[in-house]
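in:
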């Protein structure tokens, strides 16, 4: 990675036909932090994440990951990020081991190294006993665990998460929270989008608040809470959103 923020958006706007999903959004995320990204349904959170992951192009503005333009260096950026979508989108006709082997090949991981890491992560997520079952019979939460492994397999510098705890059981959620804390302690960066404000308040250091495609607040969790004058982050966000109506 080159010098500068781990993630940066510069005046990013995204239009879908007559709908403006993002409206001149600018923010910077420091390396080694869990950065929360919150907003009501339709605020533009998933659109932002798709821009950062290189899945869609902004109408205007530029997104950077690790100092590299997502538009100009898409493969370089994708090789250094891990992405966990809310949908749990996977190839369901494959088993976890088969699917993760394909992921390892896409990232050009040496086969022996990839299989070692696949085994370690399957064990971490409690899937070692289901490694060779077809995923079409899995629950949403079990598929989400496989998505987590696919995002972590190549040891990304930046982890981009869109409602990553969706469908996970309580034990796995606790393990994932600890994992995220360890990752940022190692200097990696996590961009965390979620409706679970209590989780955001507990684990995130930085925070940005989105409303109808516009950034209406940013700073540390404490700064955003104080900005609203509320006792809790959840109350503060509700107040900020209501003020924008």
């Amino acid at each position: 990675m080159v010098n500068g923020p781990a993630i940066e958006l510069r005046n990013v706007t995204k239009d879908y036909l007559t709908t403006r999903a993002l409206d001149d959004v600018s923010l910077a995320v420091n390396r080694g932090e869990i950065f929360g990204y919150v907003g009501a349904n339709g605020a533009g959170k998933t659109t932002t994440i798709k821009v950062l992951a290189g899945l869609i192009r902004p109408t205007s503005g530029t997104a950077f990951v690790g100092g590299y333009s997502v538009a100009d260096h898409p493969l370089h950026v994708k090789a250094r990020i891990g992405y966990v979508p809310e949908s749990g989108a996977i190839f369901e006709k494959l088993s976890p081991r088969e699917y993760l082997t394909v992921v390892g090949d896409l990232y050009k991981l040496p086969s022996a190294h990839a299989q070692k890491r696949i085994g370690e992560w399957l064990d971490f997520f409690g899937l070692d006993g289901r490694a060779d079952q077809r995923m079409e019979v899995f629950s949403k939460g079990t598929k989400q665990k496989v998505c987590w492994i696919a995002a972590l397999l190549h040891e990304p510098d930046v982890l981009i998460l869109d409602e990553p705890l969706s469908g996970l059981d309580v034990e796995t959620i606790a393990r994932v929270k600890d994992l995220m804390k360890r990752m940022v302690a190692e200097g990696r960066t996590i961009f965390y989008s979620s409706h679970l404000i209590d989780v955001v308040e507990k684990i995130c250091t930085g925070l940005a608040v989105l409303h109808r495609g516009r950034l209406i607040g940013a700073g540390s969790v404490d700064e955003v809470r104080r900005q609203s004058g509320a006792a809790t982050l959840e109350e503060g966000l509700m107040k900020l959103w209501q003020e924008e109506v």
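note: The two ends are 40 Å apart (CA to CA).
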